[in-house]
């Protein structure tokens, strides 16, 4: 078509190129967006797809059981339907879901209960299970089947669901009430295109690791080969339920603060600060306002951008107490170690739980553990186990903040060799766990942790804590080994020495040899032999412990 | 509060735990979702944030200019406002934007013109620039300022914009028409919190690489130190404008097919196939239907899930022509090499452009180039340059499909050393470019390419193409080096040999030496010396060229 030159003096509006281009502008529905971008949700390849669906369903079951204070019993069944089709069934004994909510929870993206709360949970985005339903219908054309019961006295509710991706709304194929001999719980059945392989990054591995970090859960797993594995619970107590908190002022962005000031129901600045943020009492609010040179009695809506900036400055100058840790439920250093002991046959274990820290106003805790030596291969790179809110992360290792923290730690300081910019090499397994009210992932598939500097810093500190403990063991082990070698050398030369002494003295060689051996085994002599030479072979790496980004 | 036991016989509905939990269920707005998840958009740290904002604006400018067939002239200015605040200004000479569209394009997420088209462009998601505006307001509280003019005869339109994240709608702070002495174009100004550092992964690096892959663009860059760099255009022709196409049947998912059948305006199956897919003419449509055992005259809406599955099977049995390549505009092997020559001082260059391939119905082309030897360091890992639709990718290298493809290629076969599961080491720079109508990224920030198997396979094939060319050079170089060494050895011993011969024969040593040297320089003797010993030192790695996933 003929277009106006952009410098014509009297152009036909319609023919101006910008007008033409404007016709293509439209809104994109969330459903369309995620359908086209299924790789953002963990569905870019068939092996990962199987894991993602199981993971989303099991995570929801664990969250629901814990919230309702029920010891979880979860049944996972994967049936091979042939032709790369698999039927995934996940059934729990949780509180069930009220009928009205079922279609939206399972077949509407960005719908859920955890996004707006600041409390640690596995699910957080209101996407996961709807994305699984969407992927199932995308690859098999089949609806998902939900069965749920909220109370033993009520019938169960069953329905078939699809998602209309253009409108991002559920489509109920059929629904009914029916009998179910379970007292309460939810059962999800989704057919998908997938590939089943055992080994690393498999459903089997995910369930095994989930059982380790959730000892209070029983998981009964039947794989596509119809082999059944039961992970029986080893703890009869649920983890403490984390409490919901409000954001912490430290790290909250100016724009968020301005938005909160606009929407708050509080009538004064002082009330705003004390009611909308954690750990701000009357005294702290007063101090913040003083440091910001603002009146406590100001109305929140009077606070312009400039005044909000002053408020932020005031916050930075004020000493704030760390957030309460009851919003988080870390695994615990002891449990992390015992979980690791189940997983890895090593000779030395150590672990650490860091104190709570904050990024963007969100509290988080980092925990780390190491397993060294034993049956682990000396030629291979360290094996990494990553967790977020007790959920194992099996994919995208090199995209993860954990991985970056590990490669940026100077492992040579702890006696482990490490090629430049790479994982350490040697008999090592490293565990990193982040517990947070809002875990930042690199994509909606929740496979790897985003690289917030505060999080990486804490991870490195945790690794260094463990590293130092490891160093003591590694160096002690090396000294003992050296001492052994020196003792052996002495032992080896005793016959020769005995020989010479026999010739010199006329004594019988056997007698001298026996006397020498006896002397060698005396404690004070042993100590002498064990003493290393003056020069300390183990020089600390002179580079800083923390390499720059 | 007291909760009903889940097994009470006559429970109070309100007190059933599921009812309680249901109260927390709500919709999450797209704006809220992305504000909380700014790390998904490339804003997880301050250095990357600076780059992301510049990148989004510059990409839009290049796309707009190319679509309007204007040779791009883009001004990028970054002003250091102090206190980690930067003002980013990007101005282009593109077609401008009509007034009505301005607020939605810049301050509404998931709004744009490229998402629904299948055509190669830099922007695709309708997110980027609105995310930049949102990040600016999040960290500084300031609105973005837009100035745009669509025709020399019209006034320019200026406005200040913010985004209401709860509603995902623009908020226009102020707007007016004004004079602007530019004929047409768009100017974007955003204030953000950021960090400016030169070096790798910087704005400077991004603009330099952008200039290389876009030789038709002039970029005038003023950095925060007020230093100006001009990347003048070296080509006076725009790249061919890619045409829009329809999806290719190969790789389209069943669910997408079913959805298309439901929404099509075509009245018969045959018309549906020929009008909604690329490269399907009457003959191919007939064959597909025959192979699927379906009547060509069937109404699309009669096609149930089972029949749609048969249709997919029919498609798989039918030979389809590859998609037309005019929907893609690859950089071109020659230009890739010359760009690389500007970037890297090496002794050997090679490149390759693969034929078009498809994933999920979307055509794509992979191009690769290598630079070997020369000034590059022999101790360091290979340097990787990644591009997608001509845009340099500077972050998340190890999350990228390019990276995976490179580490899974057996570089030892080509004479380059390579630790297990890692990048090759040696004097090597590797370039990988993907051109596609829909590039799949690992997150909305478009930093790394998602791991679709079809894409990784093509990347490896491209790397192997280049690898084989490299191998010939590396081996030839090694043979020449060996020959040189052998010649040197001969030369070194000539004085000794001459000495002995002189003693034996009585001839003068100098005469014999001269004669020997003369003999050594004869071509036929040189050839003899250059011949390697029988055993070929360079055994090919016996592992397969392609390592398994």
Question: What order do the helices and strands come in, and which of them pair?
Answer:
Two copies of one chain form a homodimer.
Chain A lengths: L16 H6 L3 E2 L2 H7 L9 H22 L5 E10 L2 E8 L9 H6 L3 E2 L15 H13 L3 E6 L6 E9 L4 E10 L6 E9 L9 H11 L4 E5 L5 E4 L22 H10 L5 H8 L5 H11 L12 H13 L15 H11 L4 E6 L3 E3 L2 E11 L10 E6 L2 E3 L7 H7 L20 E9 L16 H53 L3 H12 L2 H8 L19
Parallel strand pairs in A: 2-9, 14-16
Antiparallel strand pairs in A: 2-3, 3-8, 5-6, 5-8, 6-7, 9-10, 11-13, 12-13, 13-16, 14-15
Helix pairs in contact in A: 3-5, 8-9, 9-10, 12-13, 13-14
Q: What Rg of chain A do the Cα atoms give?
A: 31 Å
How many helices of chain A? The count is 15
The number of domains of chain A? 3
| DSSP, total strands of chain A | 16
On the 0-100 scale, what is the average pLDDT of chain A? 89
What share of residues of chain A is helical? 25-40%
Tell me the major beta sheet of chain A: 8 strands, mixed
């Amino acid at each position: 078509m003929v277009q106006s030159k952009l410098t014509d003096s009297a152009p036909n509006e319609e023919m101006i190129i910008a007008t033409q281009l404007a016709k293509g502008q439209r809104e994109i529905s969330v459903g369309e967006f995620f359908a086209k971008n299924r790789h953002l949700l963990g569905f870019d390849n068939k092996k990962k797809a199987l894991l993602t669906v199981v993971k989303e369903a099991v995570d929801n079951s664990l969250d629901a059981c814990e919230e309702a204070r029920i010891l979880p019993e979860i049944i996972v069944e994967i049936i091979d339907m042939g032709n790369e089709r698999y039927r995934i069934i996940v059934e729990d004994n949780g509180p069930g879901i009220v009928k009205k909510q079922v279609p939206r929870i399972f077949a509407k993206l960005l719908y859920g209960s955890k996004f707006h709360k600041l409390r640690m949970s596995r699910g957080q985005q209101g996407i996961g299970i709807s994305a699984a339903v969407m992927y199932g219908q995308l690859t098999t054309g089949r609806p998902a089947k939900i069965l749920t019961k909220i109370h033993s006295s009520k019938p169960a509710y069953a329905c078939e669901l699809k998602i209309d991706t253009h409108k991002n709304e559920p489509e109920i194929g059929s629904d009914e009430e029916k009998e179910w001999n379970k007292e309460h719980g939810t059962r999800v059945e989704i057919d998908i295109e997938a590939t089943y392989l055992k080994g690393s990054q498999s459903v089997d591995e995910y369930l095994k690791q989930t059982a380790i970090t959730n000892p209070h859960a029983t998981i009964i797993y039947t794989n596509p080969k119809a082999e059944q594995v039961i992970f029986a619970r080893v703890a009869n107590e649920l983890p403490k339920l984390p409490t919901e908190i409000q954001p912490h002022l430290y790290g909250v962005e100016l724009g968020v603060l301005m938005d909160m000031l606009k929407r708050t129901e509080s009538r004064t600045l002082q009330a705003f600060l004390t009611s909308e943020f954690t750990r701000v009492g009357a005294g702290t609010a007063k101090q913040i306002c003083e440091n910001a040179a603002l009146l406590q009695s100001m109305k929140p809506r009077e606070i312009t951008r400039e005044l909000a900036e002053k408020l932020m400055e005031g916050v930075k100058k004020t000493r704030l107490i760390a957030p309460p840790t009851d919003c988080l439920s870390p695994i615990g250093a002891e449990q992390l170690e015992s979980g690791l002991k189940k997983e890895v046959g090593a000779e030395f274990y150590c672990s650490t739980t860091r104190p709570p820290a904050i990024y963007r106003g969100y509290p988080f805790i980092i925990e780390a553990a190491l397993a060294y030596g034993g049956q682990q291969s000396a030629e291979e790179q360290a094996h990494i186990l990553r967790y977020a809110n007790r959920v194992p992360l099996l994919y995208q290792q090199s995209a993860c903040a954990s991985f970056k923290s590990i490669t940026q730690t100077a492992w040579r300081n702890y006696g482990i060799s490490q090629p430049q910019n790479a994982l350490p090499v040697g008999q090592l397994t490293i565990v990193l766990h982040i517990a947070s009210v809002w875990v930042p992932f690199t994509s909606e598939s929740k496979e790897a942790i985003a690289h917030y500097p505060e999080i990486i810093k804490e991870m490195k500190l945790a690794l260094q804590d463990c590293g130092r403990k490891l160093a003591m063991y590694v160096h002690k082990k090396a000294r003992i080994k050296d001492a052994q070698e020196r003792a052996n050398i002495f032992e080896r030369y005793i016959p020769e020495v005995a020989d010479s002494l026999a010739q010199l003295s006329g004594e019988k060689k056997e007698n001298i040899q026996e006397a020498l051996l006896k002397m060698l085994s005396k404690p004070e002599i042993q100590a002498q032999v064990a003493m290393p030479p003056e020069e300390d072979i183990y020089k600390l790496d002179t580079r800083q412990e923390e390499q720059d980004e």
